[in-house]
Amino acid sequence: MPCYDILRNMMEEFTTKNAPNLTPYVPLLAGSVARSFACISCYPVELARTRMQVIFLNAKVGSMLNFYSNVFSFIL
């Protein structure tokens, strides 16, 4: 998803009309917001995947392996 490009274009249009002196800071702000979106959306899935890998490596066969069958059952 091209969040950075969309945000940068929207912010550049806004700042050129309303606050031209802030235009040089638009890429910094757009990058920060886009990275925040990426972290918020990806971190829970990565955390669940990592926990499932640790449980798989440390669990005895048959005890916890069947408890977490996929990522979504681990999150819920």
What low-confidence regions span 5 or more consecutive residues with pLDDT below 50? none
Number of domains: 1
Shape, principal axes of CA atoms = rod-shaped
β-sheet strand percentage: under 5%
> What is the terminal separation in angstroms?
25 Å
How many individual β-strands?
Answer: 0
- Class by SSE composition: mainly alpha
Chain oligomer state: single chain
* Average pLDDT figure: 80
Major beta-sheet overview: none
Helical residue percent band: over 70%
Helices and strands, in order, run as HHH
Question: In angstroms, what is the radius of gyration?
Answer: 21 Å
Tally of DSSP helical segments: 3
Q: TL;DR?
A:
The chain is mostly helical.
Explain the layout of strands and helices:
Blueprint: H1 3-18, H2 26-58, H3 71-75
Helix pairs in contact: 1-2
Detailed description of the structure:
With 76 residues, the chain is an all-alpha fold. The protein has one domain (3-75). The chain has 3 helices and no strands. The protein has helices at 3-18, 26-58, 71-75. The longest helix is centred in the middle third of the chain and has 33 residues, at 26-58. The relative contact order is 0.10. The model has no long low-confidence stretch (mean pLDDT 80).
